[in-house]
Write a structure and sequence with these properties.
The chain has about 290 residues and is of the alpha+beta class. It is about 40% helix and about 10% strand.
Amino acid sequence: MPFVVRKTKCFEKPRARFAGDENVTPAPYFRVKAITSRTGATILATVTLPLVGLLIVLVRLTSRGPGIYRQERVGLYGRIFTLYKIRTMRFDAEEKTGPVWTEKNDPRITWLGRLLRRVHLDELPQFINVLRGEMTLIGPRPERPEFTQHLARKIPGYMDRYAVPPGITGLSQVNLPPDTGIDSVRRKLMLDLEYIRIAGLLLDARIVVCTSLRLLGFPGRRVARLLGVRRHPRLPEPAPETASETASETPSEKGSPATYRKALGTEVHSGNGSCGSKSRKKDGIPAAYGPSK
């Protein structure tokens, strides 16, 4: 499902137009959410700054390449921005394969990176993105442009999640494991849209506490249940036509480059808030489907 970002002047608010879908209406809380997120990010960034500096030094000492990893992601209204993370893979991880999903026991991940991913410390530099207004503390996770077009074509209403700024953690992250396929993305989309509709300061506080306790090793499901943020999203039964189309595809066809070449758009429009921003074209076809964690 293609999407575009309308060209606007600098003082106008760019809006995403999603072909064939009704835009979700964000909760009134989003009018002041930027203030609370930047305040929280300022406090957390100040507290964690020494830890981030130490981790950057450790990454530089244990593997070749920079300590901070920069990656393009899709943000509010489909605009492209640069997301910051502590590098957890080899510096040439996607040089030959292009953008691909991280697999279990992925050999590209360094031993230190595996530890950082387990406790999510690699996400700490994203407080910079919050302070820059590109992200918030709580919200749908931003996806890579290479995969966004594919997901938007496969899942109706997928681009509605970009009606609000993306977040470091969110309702879907505290309830569901990393994505393994289209159905898992659909389940997360259900929770993302629920959050967009009912977001509030109390819900954000509970998600922050839940995320923090999970980082400390507490069982995620039990903590989510105690805090009242536990959800059990269930997908509706597929229509007969959809089911027959899915069954007609062989496993090799579902994951083949030819399949993605048909489904993936080659153009992603970006707008970084400046006049005259040009669209970016992504010609690479992912070797495997891979949403972000």
